[in-house]
Amino acid sequence: MSLPESRQESVAGRLRLGACGVVAVLCVLVVRWIAIAPSTPRVVVGAALALPLAVGIPFLYAGQRRAFAWMTLALAPPLVLGLTEVVANPAVRSWAALVLIDVIAGFALLVAYLRATRSSSLPSRTAQ
Asked: What's the Cα-to-Cα distance from 32 to each of 29, 61, 86, 100, 126, rounded to whole Å?
C-alpha cells in the first residue's frame, strides 16, 4: 500500500521536523548533564556526545537521507549514557529517563523517515 505523492511528502516533512526537534532536545539534555556538575571530564564527554547531534541538525532539516542514516548511529552514545545514569546514579534518574525516552523517540522518527522516503525497487502490484 503506497500513499499518494503529496501525502507521502507531507508525512516525510512532519517526520523530518519531528526528528530535528527530538535531536535538538537531546542536545539540550546533554548540555543540562554538563551543567549539573561541571568538570573537565564531563565537559569533554558532553562535547563528544553533543557535537555529532548538533552538526547533524542542519542536514536533518535539509532532508538528506544519509544524515538520517548516520544519526541513528550517533544516538548510541547518549543511549549508553542514559542507561548508565539510570542504573548508577539515583540522583539524576529522572534526567536519565528523559534521555532514554528522547533517544528511543528519535530513533523511531529517524527510521520512520528513512522508510517513508525510500524508493521502492520492487515492482508495484498494480502493474500485474
From this structure: 5, 23, 16, 14, 52
Asked if 68 and 53 count as a contact pair (C-beta separation under 8 A), the reply is: no
What is the rounded CA–CA span in Å between residue 61 and residue 22? 12
Q: pLDDT at residue 109 above 90? A: yes
Average of pLDDT values for 49-69? Answer: 93
User: Could you tell me the sign of the dihedral formed by the alpha carbons of 20, 104, 67, 9, in that order?
Assistant: negative
Q: What is the pLDDT of residue 3?
A: 57
Angle among Cα 35, 89, 21 to the nearest 5 degrees reads 50
Average pLDDT of the chain is: 88
Q: Give the Cβ contact number of residue 35 at 10 Å.
A: 11
| Residue 102, number of CB atoms within 10 A of its CB | 24
Nearest to 106 by CA among 29, 18, 32: 18
Measure the CA–CA gap between 20 and 109, rounded to whole angstroms: 9
